[in-house]
Amino acid sequence: MDKATLRKQIRTLQKQQDAELLKTWSQSLFERIEQQEEFLKAQTVFLYYSMPGEVDTHAFIDKWYGKKNIVLPVVCGDYLELRVYKGKEQMAISSYGILEPQGEPFTAYDQIDFAVIPGLAFDREGNRLGRGKGYYDRTLPLLNCYKIGVCFQFQLVDSVPTEPFDFVLNAVCTEQGRYSNKA
Ligand code: ADP
Ligand code: MG
What we know:
The chain has helices at 3-15, 19-34, 37-41, 58-64, 135-139; strands at residues 44-46, 69-76, 79-84, 91-93, 99-101, 114-118, 121-122, 128-129, 146-150, 171-173, 178-180. It is of the alpha/beta class and 183 residues long. It starts with a helix and ends with a strand. Adenosine-5'-diphosphate is lined by residues 3, 129-134, 137-138, 165-166.
């Protein structure tokens, strides 16, 4: 199957989901992540500010804000700029209609200890399918830390089609389990 076909399939499934159920699943998923040693030890965590339909990060960010340094991505042209999360009040709506932190770019990539990466689909080997812009494929090689993909179980597939530039994650977590890339 090619990437475009898989994206379409997953988007169809996404439309059939109940928003309340997605919130419950997101909570279960982050309960798993919170038990991970790599997360507990981390001081600076790269997260994302979820949009409807994605694994919901808002409650998790609220919970850990103040205890860990939280860095979020902001789309800037062809690249993701990273910015430090400074509370809900500091979030503003971008030209893309999504909430993003204001302020200076965060460039100390080597300070990031743990990264949580969204995706449209993942497989158990840590391969990721995004929305088709390759943003994370360009950013993730700059991070020297443990990187975990997050999605709902219905987005976990047997095999994600990949190309040489696709970045492979250390593990994938859903509301039902965590799958480590043993390679
Ligand atoms: P996604 O990862 O969002 O699913 P793709 O993997 O299909 O999207 O990548 C989309 C496009 O991004 C690719 O066609 C490629 O041209 C570009 N791209 C991906 N990785 C890189 C990279 N490391 N450097 C430059 N361009 C890249
Ligand atoms: Mg890719």
